[in-house]
Amino acid sequence: MDSLVPLFVIIPLGIAFIIPLIWQVTRGVFRFLPGAGMLAMAVLAFFMLFNLGGESIVYKVGGWEPVNNIPIGIHLVADPLSLMMLIIVNMIGLFAALFSIPYIDKYTGENYYYSLFSLMVAGMNGVVLTGDLFNMFVFLEVSVIASYSLVAFGSSRDELEASFKYQVLGGIASLMILFALAMTYWYTGTVNIADASEIIRSGTGTGTAIFIQLFLLTGFGLKAAMIPFHAWLPDAHSSAPSPVSAMLSGVLIKAIGAYAILRLFFSMFSLSIEIGYILIILSVLSMILGGILASGQWDYKRLLAYSSISQMGYVIMAAGIAMVVLVRGQDAGIAALAMAGGLFHMFNHSIIKGLLFLNAGAVEYATGTRNLKELGGLASVLPITSATSLGATFSIAGIPPFNGFFSKLIIIIAAVQARLYLLALIAVIMSIVTLAYFMKVQRHIFLDKVKSARFAKVREVPWLMSLPMVVMAIMCLVMSIMIIPGVRDTFLMDAVNALLSIK
Amino acid sequence: MIPYMLCFVLFLVGLYGVLTRKNIIKIIIGLCIMEYSLYIFLAMTGYIEGGSAPIIDPSKPAGLVVDPLPQAFVLTAIVIGLATTALLLAIAIRLYKKYKTFDIDRINTLKG
Questions:
Q1: ipTM
Q2: Contact yes or no for A185 and B94 at CB 8 A
Protein backbone atom coordinates (compact mmCIF):
# COMPACT_ATOMS: atom_id res chain seq x y z
CA MET A 1 0.00 0.00 0.00
CA ASP A 2 2.96 2.37 0.54
CA SER A 3 3.61 2.77 -3.14
CA LEU A 4 0.04 4.01 -3.74
CA VAL A 5 0.60 7.21 -1.78
CA PRO A 6 2.43 9.28 -4.45
CA LEU A 7 -0.35 8.46 -6.93
CA PHE A 8 -2.41 11.25 -5.37
CA VAL A 9 0.10 13.76 -6.71
CA ILE A 10 1.14 11.89 -9.86
CA ILE A 11 -2.37 11.39 -11.33
CA PRO A 12 -3.53 15.03 -11.35
CA LEU A 13 -0.08 16.30 -12.31
CA GLY A 14 0.00 13.84 -15.21
CA ILE A 15 -3.50 14.85 -16.32
CA ALA A 16 -2.55 18.53 -16.11
CA PHE A 17 0.31 18.10 -18.55
CA ILE A 18 -1.30 15.54 -20.86
CA ILE A 19 -4.41 17.61 -21.61
CA PRO A 20 -2.79 20.55 -23.44
CA LEU A 21 -0.56 18.13 -25.38
CA ILE A 22 -3.24 15.89 -26.85
CA TRP A 23 -6.26 18.18 -26.68
CA GLN A 24 -6.52 18.66 -30.45
CA VAL A 25 -6.75 14.91 -31.11
CA THR A 26 -9.94 13.99 -29.28
CA ARG A 27 -11.20 17.03 -27.41
CA GLY A 28 -14.58 15.60 -26.44
CA VAL A 29 -13.16 12.72 -24.42
CA PHE A 30 -10.54 14.65 -22.54
CA ARG A 31 -13.04 16.93 -20.87
CA PHE A 32 -13.93 13.95 -18.72
CA LEU A 33 -10.32 13.13 -17.88
CA PRO A 34 -9.92 15.41 -14.81
CA GLY A 35 -13.22 14.13 -13.41
CA ALA A 36 -12.22 10.51 -14.01
CA GLY A 37 -8.86 11.05 -12.33
CA MET A 38 -10.45 12.64 -9.28
CA LEU A 39 -13.04 9.87 -9.02
CA ALA A 40 -10.21 7.32 -9.04
CA MET A 41 -8.34 9.23 -6.33
CA ALA A 42 -11.43 9.64 -4.14
CA VAL A 43 -12.10 5.90 -4.36
CA LEU A 44 -8.45 5.15 -3.61
CA ALA A 45 -8.52 7.43 -0.57
CA PHE A 46 -11.69 5.71 0.73
CA PHE A 47 -10.08 2.31 0.18
CA MET A 48 -6.92 3.32 2.05
CA LEU A 49 -8.89 4.88 4.91
CA PHE A 50 -10.80 1.65 5.52
CA ASN A 51 -7.74 -0.56 5.19
CA LEU A 52 -5.44 1.44 7.41
CA GLY A 53 -7.53 1.14 10.56
CA GLY A 54 -6.23 4.34 12.14
CA GLU A 55 -2.57 3.73 11.35
CA SER A 56 -0.50 6.04 9.18
CA ILE A 57 1.90 5.13 6.41
CA VAL A 58 5.03 7.01 5.49
CA TYR A 59 6.28 7.01 1.93
CA LYS A 60 9.87 8.13 1.52
CA VAL A 61 10.23 9.87 -1.84
CA GLY A 62 13.27 8.58 -3.71
CA GLY A 63 13.80 5.81 -1.17
CA TRP A 64 16.01 7.90 1.13
CA GLU A 65 16.03 6.01 4.40
CA PRO A 66 16.66 7.94 7.64
CA VAL A 67 20.31 8.09 8.75
CA ASN A 68 20.83 7.79 12.55
CA ASN A 69 17.06 8.39 12.91
CA ILE A 70 17.44 11.77 11.20
CA PRO A 71 15.05 11.84 8.22
CA ILE A 72 16.57 12.95 4.95
CA GLY A 73 14.54 13.50 1.82
CA ILE A 74 10.84 14.19 1.56
CA HIS A 75 8.27 12.09 3.41
CA LEU A 76 4.65 11.74 2.31
CA VAL A 77 2.49 10.80 5.30
CA ALA A 78 -0.96 9.31 4.74
CA ASP A 79 -2.73 9.34 8.10
CA PRO A 80 -6.52 9.33 8.66
CA LEU A 81 -6.72 13.13 8.66
CA SER A 82 -4.82 13.44 5.36
CA LEU A 83 -7.00 10.75 3.82
CA MET A 84 -10.16 12.50 4.99
CA MET A 85 -8.93 15.73 3.39
CA LEU A 86 -8.03 13.82 0.22
CA ILE A 87 -11.58 12.48 0.02
CA ILE A 88 -13.00 16.02 0.39
CA VAL A 89 -10.62 17.55 -2.16
CA ASN A 90 -11.13 14.91 -4.81
CA MET A 91 -14.87 14.52 -4.32
CA ILE A 92 -15.61 18.24 -4.61
CA GLY A 93 -13.07 18.36 -7.44
CA LEU A 94 -14.97 15.61 -9.26
CA PHE A 95 -18.29 17.44 -8.96
CA ALA A 96 -16.81 20.78 -9.98
CA ALA A 97 -15.02 19.18 -12.94
CA LEU A 98 -18.27 17.60 -14.20
CA PHE A 99 -20.12 20.89 -13.71
CA SER A 100 -17.38 22.70 -15.67
CA ILE A 101 -17.98 20.71 -18.85
CA PRO A 102 -21.09 22.64 -19.98
CA TYR A 103 -20.26 25.78 -17.97
CA ILE A 104 -16.81 26.42 -19.37
CA ASP A 105 -17.92 25.78 -22.95
CA LYS A 106 -18.42 29.49 -23.63
CA TYR A 107 -14.78 30.37 -22.81
CA THR A 108 -11.85 29.99 -25.15
CA GLY A 109 -8.87 27.87 -24.12
CA GLU A 110 -10.80 25.13 -22.38
CA ASN A 111 -7.77 22.87 -22.40
CA TYR A 112 -5.86 25.34 -20.21
CA TYR A 113 -8.83 25.47 -17.84
CA TYR A 114 -8.80 21.71 -17.27
CA SER A 115 -5.03 21.73 -17.05
CA LEU A 116 -4.97 24.46 -14.37
CA PHE A 117 -7.84 22.77 -12.55
CA SER A 118 -5.89 19.50 -12.29
CA LEU A 119 -2.78 21.39 -11.25
CA MET A 120 -4.71 23.04 -8.42
CA VAL A 121 -5.94 19.63 -7.23
CA ALA A 122 -2.39 18.22 -7.47
CA GLY A 123 -1.13 21.04 -5.26
CA MET A 124 -3.87 20.53 -2.67
CA ASN A 125 -3.35 16.76 -2.58
CA GLY A 126 0.34 17.40 -2.04
CA VAL A 127 -0.27 19.87 0.79
CA VAL A 128 -2.46 17.46 2.72
CA LEU A 129 -0.12 14.50 2.19
CA THR A 130 3.29 15.97 2.80
CA GLY A 131 5.23 15.52 6.01
CA ASP A 132 7.83 18.10 5.10
CA LEU A 133 7.46 21.84 5.66
CA PHE A 134 9.30 23.04 2.59
CA ASN A 135 7.49 20.56 0.38
CA MET A 136 4.25 21.88 1.85
CA PHE A 137 5.28 25.39 0.77
CA VAL A 138 6.05 24.18 -2.76
CA PHE A 139 2.73 22.35 -3.18
CA LEU A 140 0.92 25.31 -1.65
CA GLU A 141 2.44 27.58 -4.27
CA VAL A 142 1.52 25.12 -7.04
CA SER A 143 -2.13 25.19 -6.01
CA VAL A 144 -2.38 28.93 -5.36
CA ILE A 145 -0.63 29.92 -8.61
CA ALA A 146 -3.09 27.71 -10.49
CA SER A 147 -5.94 29.31 -8.55
CA TYR A 148 -4.70 32.86 -9.31
CA SER A 149 -4.90 32.16 -13.01
CA LEU A 150 -8.25 30.33 -12.69
CA VAL A 151 -9.76 33.37 -10.94
CA ALA A 152 -8.65 35.52 -13.88
CA PHE A 153 -9.76 32.90 -16.41
CA GLY A 154 -12.59 34.91 -17.98
CA SER A 155 -10.25 37.96 -18.18
CA SER A 156 -13.05 40.47 -17.71
CA ARG A 157 -12.44 43.63 -15.66
CA ASP A 158 -13.69 42.20 -12.38
CA GLU A 159 -11.83 38.92 -12.73
CA LEU A 160 -8.51 40.60 -13.49
CA GLU A 161 -8.85 43.03 -10.61
CA ALA A 162 -9.86 40.29 -8.18
CA SER A 163 -6.99 38.10 -9.34
CA PHE A 164 -4.47 40.94 -8.88
CA LYS A 165 -5.71 41.65 -5.37
CA TYR A 166 -5.64 37.92 -4.56
CA GLN A 167 -2.11 37.61 -5.92
CA VAL A 168 -0.69 40.52 -3.94
CA LEU A 169 -2.21 39.36 -0.65
CA GLY A 170 -1.48 35.71 -1.46
CA GLY A 171 2.12 36.65 -2.27
CA ILE A 172 2.54 38.39 1.10
CA ALA A 173 1.01 35.32 2.80
CA SER A 174 3.45 33.01 1.03
CA LEU A 175 6.37 35.20 2.10
CA MET A 176 5.18 35.06 5.72
CA ILE A 177 5.03 31.27 5.49
CA LEU A 178 8.48 31.14 3.88
CA PHE A 179 9.89 33.33 6.64
CA ALA A 180 8.34 31.10 9.32
CA LEU A 181 9.85 28.12 7.52
CA ALA A 182 13.29 29.71 7.48
CA MET A 183 12.95 30.44 11.21
CA THR A 184 11.89 26.83 11.88
CA TYR A 185 14.88 25.53 9.98
CA TRP A 186 17.19 27.92 11.80
CA TYR A 187 15.74 26.89 15.16
CA THR A 188 15.43 23.12 14.71
CA GLY A 189 17.78 22.30 11.84
CA THR A 190 15.14 20.25 10.06
CA VAL A 191 12.03 20.78 7.95
CA ASN A 192 10.50 17.35 8.60
CA ILE A 193 7.33 17.98 10.62
CA ALA A 194 7.63 14.91 12.88
CA ASP A 195 11.34 15.54 13.53
CA ALA A 196 10.85 19.28 14.12
CA SER A 197 8.03 18.58 16.58
CA GLU A 198 10.32 16.43 18.75
CA ILE A 199 12.95 19.16 18.82
CA ILE A 200 10.45 21.97 19.47
CA ARG A 201 8.63 20.06 22.22
CA SER A 202 11.81 19.06 24.02
CA GLY A 203 13.40 22.48 23.56
CA THR A 204 13.22 25.49 25.84
CA GLY A 205 12.79 28.26 23.29
CA THR A 206 9.08 28.87 23.86
CA GLY A 207 9.44 32.49 22.75
CA THR A 208 10.95 31.49 19.42
CA ALA A 209 8.22 28.90 18.87
CA ILE A 210 5.48 31.46 19.55
CA PHE A 211 7.20 33.93 17.20
CA ILE A 212 7.22 31.32 14.42
CA GLN A 213 3.61 30.42 15.16
CA LEU A 214 2.48 34.03 14.84
CA PHE A 215 4.05 34.30 11.40
CA LEU A 216 2.50 30.98 10.37
CA LEU A 217 -0.87 32.12 11.69
CA THR A 218 -0.66 35.34 9.65
CA GLY A 219 0.38 33.46 6.52
CA PHE A 220 -2.12 30.63 6.72
CA GLY A 221 -4.75 33.02 8.12
CA LEU A 222 -4.43 35.03 4.91
CA LYS A 223 -4.82 31.84 2.89
CA ALA A 224 -7.83 30.76 4.99
CA ALA A 225 -9.29 34.32 4.92
CA MET A 226 -9.74 34.75 8.66
CA ILE A 227 -11.34 38.13 9.33
CA PRO A 228 -8.55 40.68 9.57
CA PHE A 229 -6.97 39.03 6.53
CA HIS A 230 -10.11 38.47 4.46
CA ALA A 231 -10.04 41.35 1.95
CA TRP A 232 -9.23 39.24 -1.09
CA LEU A 233 -11.79 36.47 -0.59
CA PRO A 234 -15.13 38.10 -1.50
CA ASP A 235 -13.67 39.55 -4.69
CA ALA A 236 -11.79 36.45 -5.80
CA HIS A 237 -14.52 33.96 -4.92
CA SER A 238 -17.32 35.97 -6.49
CA SER A 239 -15.49 36.93 -9.69
CA ALA A 240 -14.10 33.49 -10.58
CA PRO A 241 -16.06 31.09 -12.85
CA SER A 242 -18.57 29.25 -10.62
CA PRO A 243 -16.99 25.76 -10.58
CA VAL A 244 -13.72 27.44 -9.61
CA SER A 245 -15.51 29.37 -6.85
CA ALA A 246 -16.87 26.06 -5.62
CA MET A 247 -13.32 24.69 -5.49
CA LEU A 248 -11.87 27.83 -3.88
CA SER A 249 -14.54 28.19 -1.23
CA GLY A 250 -15.28 24.51 -0.85
CA VAL A 251 -11.77 23.12 -0.71
CA LEU A 252 -8.85 25.50 -1.25
CA ILE A 253 -9.33 27.64 1.86
CA LYS A 254 -9.62 24.42 3.88
CA ALA A 255 -6.77 22.39 2.38
CA ILE A 256 -4.15 25.15 2.39
CA GLY A 257 -5.59 27.30 5.17
CA ALA A 258 -7.45 25.49 7.91
CA TYR A 259 -5.80 22.09 7.42
CA ALA A 260 -2.31 23.60 7.53
CA ILE A 261 -3.18 25.54 10.71
CA LEU A 262 -4.56 22.42 12.40
CA ARG A 263 -1.71 20.17 11.27
CA LEU A 264 1.14 22.49 12.19
CA PHE A 265 -0.24 23.89 15.44
CA PHE A 266 -1.41 20.58 16.86
CA SER A 267 1.21 18.15 15.49
CA MET A 268 4.33 20.28 15.29
CA PHE A 269 4.34 22.95 18.00
CA SER A 270 3.74 22.48 21.68
CA LEU A 271 0.26 23.70 22.53
CA SER A 272 0.05 27.06 24.25
CA ILE A 273 -2.88 28.90 25.77
CA GLU A 274 -1.98 32.16 24.00
CA ILE A 275 -2.28 30.62 20.54
CA GLY A 276 -5.53 28.95 21.63
CA TYR A 277 -7.02 32.31 22.62
CA ILE A 278 -5.74 33.97 19.42
CA LEU A 279 -7.43 31.26 17.37
CA ILE A 280 -10.68 31.75 19.29
CA ILE A 281 -10.61 35.55 18.91
CA LEU A 282 -9.90 35.37 15.17
CA SER A 283 -12.62 32.78 14.67
CA VAL A 284 -15.25 34.71 16.63
CA LEU A 285 -14.43 37.84 14.62
CA SER A 286 -14.73 35.81 11.40
CA MET A 287 -18.04 34.29 12.45
CA ILE A 288 -19.69 37.53 13.50
CA LEU A 289 -18.34 39.95 10.88
CA GLY A 290 -18.57 37.40 8.06
CA GLY A 291 -22.21 36.77 8.93
CA ILE A 292 -23.10 40.46 9.22
CA LEU A 293 -21.31 41.38 5.98
CA ALA A 294 -23.03 38.48 4.18
CA SER A 295 -26.46 39.74 5.26
CA GLY A 296 -25.91 43.03 3.43
CA GLN A 297 -24.89 41.62 0.05
CA TRP A 298 -27.05 41.70 -3.08
CA ASP A 299 -24.68 39.74 -5.29
CA TYR A 300 -25.44 36.02 -4.90
CA LYS A 301 -21.81 34.87 -5.07
CA ARG A 302 -20.46 37.65 -2.82
CA LEU A 303 -23.00 36.64 -0.21
CA LEU A 304 -21.81 33.04 -0.43
CA ALA A 305 -18.18 34.20 -0.19
CA TYR A 306 -18.80 36.16 3.02
CA SER A 307 -20.75 33.19 4.34
CA SER A 308 -17.65 31.03 3.78
CA ILE A 309 -15.65 33.33 6.06
CA SER A 310 -18.33 33.00 8.71
CA GLN A 311 -18.55 29.20 8.47
CA MET A 312 -14.76 28.74 8.54
CA GLY A 313 -14.92 30.60 11.85
CA TYR A 314 -16.75 27.60 13.32
CA VAL A 315 -13.95 25.25 12.23
CA ILE A 316 -11.18 27.41 13.67
CA MET A 317 -13.20 28.04 16.83
CA ALA A 318 -13.46 24.29 17.40
CA ALA A 319 -9.68 24.02 17.04
CA GLY A 320 -9.20 26.91 19.47
CA ILE A 321 -11.53 25.27 22.02
CA ALA A 322 -9.64 21.98 21.70
CA MET A 323 -6.31 23.73 22.24
CA VAL A 324 -7.51 25.72 25.26
CA VAL A 325 -9.03 22.58 26.83
CA LEU A 326 -5.83 20.57 26.34
CA VAL A 327 -3.58 23.29 27.76
CA ARG A 328 -5.83 23.88 30.77
CA GLY A 329 -5.62 20.17 31.51
CA GLN A 330 -9.36 19.56 31.32
CA ASP A 331 -10.69 16.22 30.06
CA ALA A 332 -9.06 15.30 26.74
CA GLY A 333 -12.42 13.87 25.68
CA ILE A 334 -13.84 17.40 25.42
CA ALA A 335 -10.93 18.43 23.19
CA ALA A 336 -11.53 15.37 21.01
CA LEU A 337 -15.25 16.23 20.81
CA ALA A 338 -14.52 19.84 19.81
CA MET A 339 -12.02 18.74 17.20
CA ALA A 340 -14.42 16.12 15.84
CA GLY A 341 -17.06 18.84 15.50
CA GLY A 342 -14.58 21.11 13.72
CA LEU A 343 -13.43 18.46 11.26
CA PHE A 344 -17.01 17.33 10.66
CA HIS A 345 -18.08 20.90 9.99
CA MET A 346 -15.13 21.36 7.62
CA PHE A 347 -16.25 18.25 5.73
CA ASN A 348 -19.88 19.36 5.67
CA HIS A 349 -19.07 22.92 4.71
CA SER A 350 -17.07 21.84 1.68
CA ILE A 351 -20.06 19.87 0.37
CA ILE A 352 -22.61 22.57 1.23
CA LYS A 353 -20.63 25.54 -0.05
CA GLY A 354 -19.54 23.61 -3.14
CA LEU A 355 -23.21 22.90 -3.83
CA LEU A 356 -24.28 26.50 -3.19
CA PHE A 357 -21.65 27.87 -5.56
CA LEU A 358 -22.69 25.35 -8.21
CA ASN A 359 -26.30 26.54 -7.69
CA ALA A 360 -25.12 30.12 -8.17
CA GLY A 361 -23.32 29.00 -11.31
CA ALA A 362 -26.46 27.30 -12.61
CA VAL A 363 -28.54 30.42 -11.95
CA GLU A 364 -25.96 32.58 -13.67
CA TYR A 365 -25.71 30.13 -16.58
CA ALA A 366 -29.48 30.08 -17.07
CA THR A 367 -30.28 33.77 -16.53
CA GLY A 368 -27.00 35.61 -17.11
CA THR A 369 -27.11 37.56 -13.84
CA ARG A 370 -26.46 36.99 -10.17
CA ASN A 371 -27.96 40.18 -8.78
CA LEU A 372 -30.58 39.28 -6.18
CA LYS A 373 -32.61 42.38 -7.00
CA GLU A 374 -33.10 41.36 -10.62
CA LEU A 375 -33.85 37.67 -10.09
CA GLY A 376 -37.00 36.09 -8.75
CA GLY A 377 -39.50 33.30 -9.22
CA LEU A 378 -36.99 30.78 -10.57
CA ALA A 379 -38.38 27.86 -8.54
CA SER A 380 -40.81 26.89 -11.29
CA VAL A 381 -38.34 27.15 -14.19
CA LEU A 382 -35.25 25.77 -12.44
CA PRO A 383 -36.78 22.99 -10.29
CA ILE A 384 -33.59 20.97 -9.74
CA THR A 385 -31.43 23.99 -8.91
CA SER A 386 -34.09 25.34 -6.61
CA ALA A 387 -34.63 22.06 -4.74
CA THR A 388 -30.92 21.39 -4.24
CA SER A 389 -30.36 24.96 -3.13
CA LEU A 390 -33.12 24.60 -0.54
CA GLY A 391 -31.40 21.45 0.79
CA ALA A 392 -28.08 23.26 1.05
CA THR A 393 -29.75 26.21 2.78
CA PHE A 394 -31.31 23.99 5.43
CA SER A 395 -28.03 22.19 5.86
CA ILE A 396 -25.84 25.28 6.30
CA ALA A 397 -28.34 26.92 8.63
CA GLY A 398 -28.48 23.79 10.80
CA ILE A 399 -31.99 22.39 10.38
CA PRO A 400 -32.08 18.99 12.12
CA PRO A 401 -31.94 16.04 9.72
CA PHE A 402 -29.20 17.70 7.65
CA ASN A 403 -25.50 17.29 8.34
CA GLY A 404 -24.85 20.95 9.16
CA PHE A 405 -27.04 20.65 12.24
CA PHE A 406 -25.00 17.84 13.76
CA SER A 407 -21.60 19.42 13.22
CA LYS A 408 -22.70 22.74 14.71
CA LEU A 409 -24.38 20.88 17.59
CA ILE A 410 -21.17 18.99 18.38
CA ILE A 411 -19.16 22.23 18.41
CA ILE A 412 -21.71 23.93 20.67
CA ILE A 413 -21.85 20.96 23.08
CA ALA A 414 -18.06 20.94 23.25
CA ALA A 415 -18.02 24.69 23.96
CA VAL A 416 -20.53 24.23 26.80
CA GLN A 417 -18.58 21.30 28.24
CA ALA A 418 -15.39 23.36 28.11
CA ARG A 419 -17.29 26.03 30.11
CA LEU A 420 -16.86 28.58 27.31
CA TYR A 421 -20.54 29.54 27.43
CA LEU A 422 -20.13 32.82 25.53
CA LEU A 423 -18.70 30.98 22.52
CA ALA A 424 -21.63 28.56 22.54
CA LEU A 425 -24.04 31.50 22.61
CA ILE A 426 -22.26 33.25 19.70
CA ALA A 427 -22.28 30.02 17.68
CA VAL A 428 -26.06 29.65 18.20
CA ILE A 429 -26.78 33.29 17.32
CA MET A 430 -24.63 33.19 14.18
CA SER A 431 -26.42 30.03 13.12
CA ILE A 432 -29.70 31.99 13.21
CA VAL A 433 -28.09 34.85 11.25
CA THR A 434 -26.98 32.26 8.68
CA LEU A 435 -30.56 31.06 8.34
CA ALA A 436 -31.70 34.66 7.90
CA TYR A 437 -29.39 35.54 5.02
CA PHE A 438 -29.97 32.27 3.24
CA MET A 439 -33.72 32.78 3.53
CA LYS A 440 -33.09 36.11 1.80
CA VAL A 441 -31.42 34.21 -1.04
CA GLN A 442 -34.31 31.76 -1.30
CA ARG A 443 -36.88 34.52 -1.29
CA HIS A 444 -35.22 36.77 -3.86
CA ILE A 445 -34.05 34.12 -6.29
CA PHE A 446 -36.34 31.14 -6.18
CA LEU A 447 -39.58 32.30 -4.57
CA ASP A 448 -41.05 35.78 -5.11
CA LYS A 449 -42.55 36.56 -8.50
CA VAL A 450 -40.76 36.89 -11.82
CA LYS A 451 -39.46 40.44 -12.08
CA SER A 452 -38.26 40.54 -15.66
CA ALA A 453 -39.77 39.24 -18.87
CA ARG A 454 -36.42 37.96 -20.09
CA PHE A 455 -36.48 35.13 -17.53
CA ALA A 456 -39.66 33.74 -19.11
CA LYS A 457 -37.84 31.42 -21.47
CA VAL A 458 -35.22 30.23 -18.96
CA ARG A 459 -34.61 26.47 -19.14
CA GLU A 460 -33.21 24.03 -16.58
CA VAL A 461 -29.44 23.57 -16.91
CA PRO A 462 -27.93 20.56 -18.82
CA TRP A 463 -27.80 17.21 -17.03
CA LEU A 464 -24.03 17.38 -16.51
CA MET A 465 -24.63 20.45 -14.37
CA SER A 466 -27.66 19.15 -12.49
CA LEU A 467 -26.20 15.71 -11.74
CA PRO A 468 -23.41 16.98 -9.43
CA MET A 469 -25.91 19.25 -7.67
CA VAL A 470 -28.34 16.39 -7.03
CA VAL A 471 -25.60 14.08 -5.75
CA MET A 472 -24.25 16.78 -3.44
CA ALA A 473 -27.74 17.59 -2.12
CA ILE A 474 -28.24 13.91 -1.29
CA MET A 475 -24.84 13.88 0.41
CA CYS A 476 -25.92 16.84 2.56
CA LEU A 477 -28.57 14.56 4.01
CA VAL A 478 -26.64 11.28 4.01
CA MET A 479 -23.52 12.67 5.70
CA SER A 480 -25.53 12.83 8.92
CA ILE A 481 -24.71 9.11 9.30
CA MET A 482 -21.22 10.20 10.33
CA ILE A 483 -22.49 10.67 13.89
CA ILE A 484 -23.54 7.00 14.16
CA PRO A 485 -20.91 5.36 16.42
CA GLY A 486 -19.50 2.74 14.00
CA VAL A 487 -19.11 5.15 11.10
CA ARG A 488 -17.85 7.92 13.34
CA ASP A 489 -15.01 5.81 14.68
CA THR A 490 -13.46 4.89 11.33
CA PHE A 491 -14.06 8.17 9.65
CA LEU A 492 -13.97 11.00 12.14
CA MET A 493 -12.39 9.87 15.39
CA ASP A 494 -9.33 8.37 13.72
CA ALA A 495 -8.65 11.73 12.12
CA VAL A 496 -9.11 13.46 15.48
CA ASN A 497 -6.76 11.00 17.19
CA ALA A 498 -4.18 11.45 14.45
CA LEU A 499 -4.28 15.20 15.07
CA LEU A 500 -4.40 15.30 18.86
CA SER A 501 -2.30 12.12 19.29
CA ILE A 502 -4.67 10.72 21.94
CA LYS A 503 -4.61 6.95 22.15
CA MET B 1 23.85 40.63 13.54
CA ILE B 2 24.19 43.50 11.05
CA PRO B 3 23.44 41.36 7.94
CA TYR B 4 20.20 40.18 9.58
CA MET B 5 19.23 43.76 10.36
CA LEU B 6 19.92 44.85 6.76
CA CYS B 7 17.92 41.90 5.51
CA PHE B 8 14.99 42.96 7.71
CA VAL B 9 15.32 46.56 6.47
CA LEU B 10 15.14 45.26 2.89
CA PHE B 11 11.97 43.35 3.79
CA LEU B 12 10.42 46.51 5.24
CA VAL B 13 11.41 48.53 2.15
CA GLY B 14 9.50 46.03 0.01
CA LEU B 15 6.50 46.06 2.35
CA TYR B 16 6.49 49.88 2.31
CA GLY B 17 6.44 49.79 -1.47
CA VAL B 18 3.52 47.34 -1.57
CA LEU B 19 1.52 49.35 0.94
CA THR B 20 2.07 52.91 -0.28
CA ARG B 21 2.62 52.85 -4.04
CA LYS B 22 -0.33 53.38 -6.39
CA ASN B 23 1.31 51.99 -9.52
CA ILE B 24 0.74 48.29 -10.17
CA ILE B 25 4.26 47.75 -11.50
CA LYS B 26 5.75 49.38 -8.38
CA ILE B 27 3.64 47.09 -6.18
CA ILE B 28 5.02 44.10 -8.07
CA ILE B 29 8.57 45.42 -7.61
CA GLY B 30 7.85 45.82 -3.88
CA LEU B 31 6.77 42.18 -3.68
CA CYS B 32 9.96 41.14 -5.48
CA ILE B 33 12.10 43.09 -3.00
CA MET B 34 10.37 41.34 -0.09
CA GLU B 35 11.03 38.01 -1.79
CA TYR B 36 14.73 38.75 -2.28
CA SER B 37 15.17 39.74 1.35
CA LEU B 38 13.75 36.36 2.34
CA TYR B 39 16.06 34.52 -0.04
CA ILE B 40 19.00 36.26 1.61
CA PHE B 41 17.67 35.38 5.05
CA LEU B 42 17.26 31.73 4.04
CA ALA B 43 20.80 31.59 2.68
CA MET B 44 22.13 33.18 5.88
CA THR B 45 20.49 30.52 8.08
CA GLY B 46 22.84 27.97 6.52
CA TYR B 47 25.99 30.07 6.81
CA ILE B 48 28.77 28.91 9.09
CA GLU B 49 31.67 31.23 9.96
CA GLY B 50 34.74 30.16 8.00
CA GLY B 51 32.97 27.38 6.12
CA SER B 52 33.71 26.52 2.52
CA ALA B 53 31.51 25.27 -0.32
CA PRO B 54 29.93 21.87 0.47
CA ILE B 55 31.77 19.89 -2.21
CA ILE B 56 33.36 16.69 -0.95
CA ASP B 57 36.78 15.98 -2.45
CA PRO B 58 38.09 12.47 -1.60
CA SER B 59 41.69 13.59 -1.77
CA LYS B 60 41.27 16.27 0.90
CA PRO B 61 39.92 15.86 4.42
CA ALA B 62 36.41 17.25 4.85
CA GLY B 63 36.74 20.60 6.57
CA LEU B 64 34.13 22.98 7.83
CA VAL B 65 31.42 23.42 5.18
CA VAL B 66 28.31 25.60 5.05
CA ASP B 67 24.87 23.99 5.14
CA PRO B 68 23.80 23.29 1.53
CA LEU B 69 20.11 22.64 2.30
CA PRO B 70 18.98 26.30 2.57
CA GLN B 71 20.73 26.98 -0.73
CA ALA B 72 18.56 24.31 -2.34
CA PHE B 73 15.54 25.94 -0.69
CA VAL B 74 16.51 29.32 -2.11
CA LEU B 75 16.87 27.89 -5.63
CA THR B 76 13.41 26.32 -5.39
CA ALA B 77 11.93 29.51 -3.96
CA ILE B 78 13.48 31.57 -6.78
CA VAL B 79 11.78 29.35 -9.37
CA ILE B 80 8.44 29.74 -7.56
CA GLY B 81 9.02 33.49 -7.31
CA LEU B 82 9.64 33.60 -11.05
CA ALA B 83 6.26 31.95 -11.70
CA THR B 84 4.45 34.32 -9.35
CA THR B 85 6.11 37.42 -10.82
CA ALA B 86 5.45 36.31 -14.39
CA LEU B 87 1.77 35.74 -13.63
CA LEU B 88 1.50 39.09 -11.80
CA LEU B 89 3.03 40.91 -14.77
CA ALA B 90 0.75 39.07 -17.20
CA ILE B 91 -2.28 40.17 -15.17
CA ALA B 92 -0.86 43.71 -15.02
CA ILE B 93 -0.62 43.81 -18.84
CA ARG B 94 -4.22 42.60 -19.20
CA LEU B 95 -5.37 45.16 -16.61
CA TYR B 96 -3.61 47.91 -18.56
CA LYS B 97 -5.37 46.84 -21.76
CA LYS B 98 -8.78 46.99 -20.05
CA TYR B 99 -8.34 50.18 -18.02
CA LYS B 100 -5.58 52.06 -19.92
CA THR B 101 -3.92 52.86 -16.60
CA PHE B 102 -1.62 51.34 -13.97
CA ASP B 103 -3.13 53.43 -11.16
CA ILE B 104 -4.87 51.20 -8.59
CA ASP B 105 -7.10 54.09 -7.50
CA ARG B 106 -8.75 54.03 -10.91
CA ILE B 107 -9.01 50.22 -11.05
CA ASN B 108 -11.76 49.87 -8.47
CA THR B 109 -14.89 48.22 -9.79
CA LEU B 110 -14.88 45.78 -6.85
CA LYS B 111 -15.46 47.01 -3.34
CA GLY B 112 -13.28 44.63 -1.30
A1: 0.94
A2: no
